[in-house]
Design goal:
heterodimer, A: FAD/NAD(P)-binding domain, FAD/NAD(P)-binding domain, 21 helices, 30% helix, 19% strand, B: mainly alpha, 2 domains, elongated
């Protein structure tokens, strides 16, 4: 067989006792004729590794297939330079979950060996994608997070460009009257500690600061981003408007497409926005600007105070003495706290961190930071006025970690009154204000008379108002957002990631955070940016397939310009050429192969992963005839979460039907419908797809892979009808990585469903 | 809104409470562990949770008009279980102290007894009075031939006059304060659902039925020994009071010589007196040992606590030593301790309405008031109680109830 292959069957772990190894070797040698076929226990032992290495040298092996434990173990041991290494999981997927020395178990092992040996025949020899890249870092935002990211990246030896829209560095953290110490005993406030950091950034030779500037556009890809930096001006509003219009049109089209119609663009402006963003549009730079090439971007653009206009029901706008917490900072900076309306001393303040009882506007952007700011400002009052009274009415009081100490300190202060509650109303009361609150801890409706009311408005990420990064990607200038309005990534596991490779968020643009949190977050983002610049310089993928040297290749002459790959790529890796064909940007690619699944012409492939490869593996499965009562089911599993789940089921010796054959995919979104057609036409009785949970709190490593898979599968009903098969033969399942206990029921339940149908009539064709 | 309250926190009151021993009251975060833990708190608006937030918010009027503070028998279960270390029992205790002081009549007596800075004066008055009495009776002649004759050491007449006056002062002051308290409770508490209210006398009788056998106190299982000690002191005190009353009646009205003079030790009145005295002193000793030995169980002891405890303990102890000295044949010892005993007794009588001693009045009144408005004091606690699972009501039945 080609390439010259060695098969090494591990008889350890009980594999030798549970399977007929000679028969297994027989199948391999009869059907594939590998150059070497050996069966011995524990191939991972150093002396056994030496045997394999000498076989490679002596026999000239180009591929090695190890049939033994899961691919998730001994990855570093079974690593042979310049040799294709493939693993067949006889342990977790076969003997640990099937009865020993059973006919079906043996058939299962034989099929996995066939699939492994078939797979190596389909590898292509291609070097990694390399192009000239740079490693400098662009940091957007000069606040606490941006300054930290810039300094950390510069100190690690990387050139940094720092863009700040205001004339002065420092951002919000520098405007506050006082800040938390972040040090024991956690009960004091200090002056804003950013000054030294600003000086360090200004004096660092590796950091170039662009003050009063914004990013006009970013084009290119990781390792070769071209960022245009332009002095701040009214142009930003025009750009925002243009971008918002484009987004509006796109969303309308998507909605229409879901409802099965076509959205008609109304105005000229909307008509112009109907296509992909920036497609076929030359970037004209007829204004003062600077253009820099960077390897990665840290987005630390921060936040703005929530618009208080919607809190009219709490008296904002109606009474001058109802102010926001941002205004309170300014007020406190002026010395003794005085009332905005008449300049008199303030003796009592009601801090409202809870909504008005009938309001549909909760403080959506309220966070633990807002809670802390409220406590902090209560201290301003208490320190400014010995007899001052601070009433704090909250919906939630969140003071995580050591901030509990600050909360306790404020709680101990006799002049601070804390209670949960809902505001009934704020009204004028003499010269002051009266606040009515219900559902309080006192069990009654309260009325407090105060001099001033402070609304604890939240922190809105600036990406709410503007794309900020202003990408020139076909999928749009924005970083995609999650349902909560923040930049989307896989927040549970990979908080720094965004859906745009090479751009990492840090600080309050990602989620409200305190000063110390923003600093440590910025350090992490700087490291991620450096990692990205380094990996792409070697032609390797970034997270989550870090180090993967394969990349998608398109046989473009067969492309029909359907644009599915450009639309479906969760990371916007494809731009569009003037002729409508996709323009891949390999360094933006995360190698999830969702595009490979999306392509109806099957022209997208990786060197070690292709439509043909998986199709051939499926075809190599032995399908017994319809009278044997041995159905066959192919289970496509996502290799990020579902594969470990199957391994864990094996480790826990959970038993399930032996008629299933697992085929791991890079992501469930990698599924190409042709494989389903291949399988069914070969006589496979049923197909399961097990992927990550999707929806608002998705678990997919590639954001929307499992969702796309289930969308695609919903469209195969037609194919099934053509083949005269029941649609229940194909089902998509969602499984969390911790849910291995559900796997046997999931599989056996599917087998029960199949048992209601006749065998696939295409067996034997 | 009918039950909207206008909150004007009295910062000074909160500070005063903190000073009066409720040092950690601001730490409460209203988890209600205290009210759950308390074995005697009623099911309906239980204490001490609500008192905790009233104290934090400086709601002085609420707290001073709250009879519940007297329903607490200070077993300290709440304080030991409080996850925040807010010591609810100490807060209630401090409120009780503030109330006694506030209702003191005349009011300066409240601060005389309650403030540690006034200790010298508070203790000096009874000492001086007794010393003067002794001096004018026979000029400090401690050594005289046996038998002991207290009447010759200090003549009875000034004692009768001064102590009777002190007692009358105490009783009048106490009655006056308690009457005010009852009125205050009536006026400042919302009318309750239970109508008609019971009258004062039936309520008082009902309260006494609970107080005399210490039935509620006994429910504070966590601190059972305190119940025993208090029971001993309480009945010891009543026994001593009865003894004293009979002896005084014999001497003053019937002109019979006191039985100590030559009578046998087995006559009933002497047995009653001695048994009572032993119970009294032993009970107080238990309390003192616990307060000194395990403050975490007994709760923080303030000046207010110590003042009362030492005076009442001193009264019992010196009385007992006086008797023992007489039996031992030490005439001068008997006279000396008799003199000290008189000092303690005078302090006890004089300060009754202003010291912690006043709790006997306030607590009785608060419990009686509770009875009159139908506030259930105790709900039996069933250990490991799990509510019965009710079968799903049929739809029709639900509609019918609506």
């Amino acid at each position: 067989m080609e390439p010259k292959t060695g098969l090494y069957i591990d008889t350890g772990y009980g594999i030798g006792e549970a399977l007929d190894i000679e028969a297994l070797k027989g199948v391999a040698t009869d059907e594939f004729k590998p150059a070497v076929c050996k069966a011995e226990p524990y191939w991972s032992d150093p002396d056994k590794i030496e045997i394999i290495k000498s076989d490679i040298a002596n026999e000239g092996l180009k591929a090695v297939v190890i049939a033994g434990p899961s691919v998730r173990v001994y990855q570093d041991v079974f690593k042979f330079d310049g040799v294709i290494t493939e693993r067949v999981n006889l342990r977790e997927h076969v003997i640990w979950c099937q009865p020993a020395n059973h006919e079906d178990t043996q058939m299962l092992a034989e099929d996995y060996v066939r699939m492994g040996l078939t797979k190596v025949t389909k590898y292509q020899d291609k070097p990694p994608f390399t192009e000239e890249t740079v490693k400098s870092i662009l940091v957007i935002g000069g606040g606490a997070a941006g300054l930290t990211a810039a300094l950390d990246a510069a100190n690690a030896g990387y050139e940094v460009f720092l863009v700040e829209k205001e004339a002065e560095l420092g951002g919000w953290a520098n405007k506050f009257f006082k800040a938390f110490t972040g040090e024991p005993p956690y009960d004091q406030l200090v002056d804003s500690p950013l000054k030294s950091k600003i000086d360090a950034v200004k004096s660092n030779a590796k950091i170039k600061v662009f003050a009063s500037s914004r990013v006009y556009a970013i084009s290119g890809a990781p390792g070769m981003f071209d960022a245009v930096i332009r002095p701040d001006g009214p142009w930003i509003d025009e750009l925002n408007h243009k971008q918002d219009t484009w987004l509006k049109v796109q969303l309308a089209r998507q909605k229409q497409a879901q409802e099965g119609g076509v959205a008609e663009a109304q105005t000229d402006e909307e008509k112009a926005a109907a296509g992909g963003w920036a497609v076929g549009e030359e970037l004209s730079l007829d204004f003062p600007h600077e253009k820099v090439r960077v390897g990665a971007v840290v987005l630390a653009a921060g936040w703005r105070p929530e618009d208080p206009a919607k809190y009219e029901s709490l008296g904002y706008g109606k009474y001058p003495d109802v102010i926001t917490n941002a205004q309170m900072e300014e007020l406190a900076q002026k010395g003794k706290i005085k009332r905005p309306s008449d300049g008199k001393d303030v003796h009592s303040i009601a801090f409202l961190e809870c909504r008005e009882e009938n309001s549909e506007n909760p403080f959506l952007n309220n966070s633990y930071v807002t809670c802390l700011v409220t406590l902090k400002q209560a201290k301003y009052l208490r320190e400014s006025n010995q007899n001052g009274r601070a009433y704090i009415f909250y919906e939630n009081m969140r003071t995580p970690g050591q901030y509990e100490k600050f909360y306790q300190t404020m709680q101990d202060d006799p002049g601070v009154f804390l209670s949960a509650g809902k505001v009934v109303g704020v009204s004028a009361d003499g010269a002051g204000l009266a606040v009515n609150v219900k559902d309080t801890l006192l069990g009654e409706q309260l009325k407090v008379k105060v001099d001033m009311v402070v609304l604890a408005t939240g922190m809105v990420p600036v990406t709410e108002d503007s794309a900020v990064v202003n990408l020139r990607y076909r999928q749009g200038p924005f970083l995609p957002k999650n349902p909560y309005g923040f930049n989307d990534s896989h927040f549970i596991c990979f908080p720094y990631e965004t859906q745009r490779t090479g751009i990492y968020t840090a600080g309050c643009v990602k989620s409200p955070m305190d000063f110390q949190g923003a600093e440590s977050d910025a350090t992490g983002a700087a490291l991620k940016a450096i990692q990205c610049a380094e990996l792409v310089s070697r032609g390797e993928a970034v997270h989550p397939r870090a180090g993967d040297q394969s990349y998608p290749e398109l046989f473009i002459t067969r492309c029909t310009q359907c644009k599915r790959c450009t639309d479906e790529c969760p990371f916007g890796a494809y731009d569009e050429k003037p002729d409508g064909t996709p323009l891949p940007n390999p360094t933006r690619c995360r190698r999830c192969a969702i595009c490979m699944g999306s392509c109806p012409e099957r022209i997208i492939s990786f060197r070690d992963h292709s439509v043909d490869m998986i199709g051939s593996m499926i075809k190599s499965i032995g399908v017994p005839d319809e009278y044997s009562e041995k159905p066959r089911v192919i289970v496509f599993i996502c290799e990020n979460d579902a594969y470990p789940v199957v391994d864990m089921a094996g480790i826990n010796r959970l038993q399930y039907s032996g008629f299933v054959r697992f085929v791991p995919l890079r992501c469930l979104g990698n599924i190409n419908l042709v494989w389903i057609a291949d399988a069914l036409s070969k006589g496979i009785d049923g197909i399961m797809l097990i992927g990550c949970k999707y929806g608002d709190d998705y678990q997919c490593h590639f954001v929307k892979g499992s969702e796309l898979a289930s969308y695609r599968v919903s469209k195969v009903a037609e194919t099934l009808q053509r083949l005269v098969l029941e649609s229940e033969r194909i089902q998509v399942f969602q499984l969390g990585i911790d849910e291995y206990g559900k796997l046997p029921d999931m599989i056996n339940g599917f087998m029960d469903t199949l048992s209601q149908f006749d065998p696939n009539p295409y067996k034997g064709f | 809104m009918a039950n909207e309250i206008i909150v004007e926190p009295d910062l000074q009151f909160t500070k005063d409470l903190i000073k009066a021993g409720a040092t950690d009251l601001k730490k409460c975060y209203q988890c209600a562990t205290c009210s759950v833990a308390c074995r005697v708190s009623p099911d309906n608006s239980p204490y001490p949770r609500k008192e905790m937030i009233w104290a934090q918010w400086g709601l002085k009027d609420r707290l001073l008009n709250d009879p519940d503070v007297w329903l607490c028998h200070q077993c300290n279960d709440c304080s030991t279980l409080c996850p925040r270390g807010a010591y609810p029992a100490d807060v209630l205790k401090a409120i009780r102290k503030m109330l006694i002081q506030k209702l003191s009549w005349p009011s300066f007596m409240g601060s005389l007894v309650g403030e540690s800075s006034m200790a010298v004066l508070a203790l000096g008055i009874p000492i001086l009075v007794v010393l003067l009495m002794t001096y004018f009776s026979n000029g400090f002649t401690f050594s005289s031939p046996a038998p002991v004759h207290y009447g010759q050491f200090i003549s009875y007449i000034p004692i009768q006059v001064i102590y009777t006056l002190a007692l009358i002062f105490a009783v009048v002051s106490m009655v006056f304060s308690l009457k005010n308290y009852w009125t205050m409770l009536d006026k400042n508490n919302p009318p309750t659902a239970q109508e008609p209210r019971k009258g004062f006398v039936p309520s008082l009788i009902e309260a006494l039925k609970e107080i005399l056998p210490h039935s509620t106190f006994k429910d504070c299982e966590a601190n059972y020994i305190r119940y025993v000690a208090h029971f001993m002191v309480f009945w010891g005190m009543i026994g001593l009071f009865v003894t004293t009353a009979i002896v005084a009646f014999n001497i003053d009205i019937l002109s019979l010589a006191p039985p100590s003079r030559g009578g046998p030790g087995t006559i009933p009145i002497k047995i009653l007196g001695n048994v009572s005295a032993i119970a009294f002193v032993a009970g107080l000793a238990i309390m003192l040992v616990r307060r000194l030995g395990s403050p975490e169980q007994a709760g923080n002891s303030s000046y207010f606590d110590w003042f009362f405890l030492w005076i009442i303990f001193g009264t019992g102890l010196t009385g007992l030593i006086t008797e023992l000295s007489r039996w031992a044949g030490s005439v001068s010892g008997a006279y000396f301790f008799y003199m000290v005993h008189l000092m303690f007794v005078l302090a006890l009588l004089l300060y009754l309405p202003f010291s912690k001693f006043a709790h006997l009045g306030y607590r009785t009144i608060a419990i009686a008031w509770g009875k009159s408005v139908g506030r259930k004091m105790t709900v039996p606690v069933v250990p490991n109680f799990a509510p019965p699972i009710r079968a799903e009501e049929p739809e029709a039945a639900k509609e019918a109830t609506v």
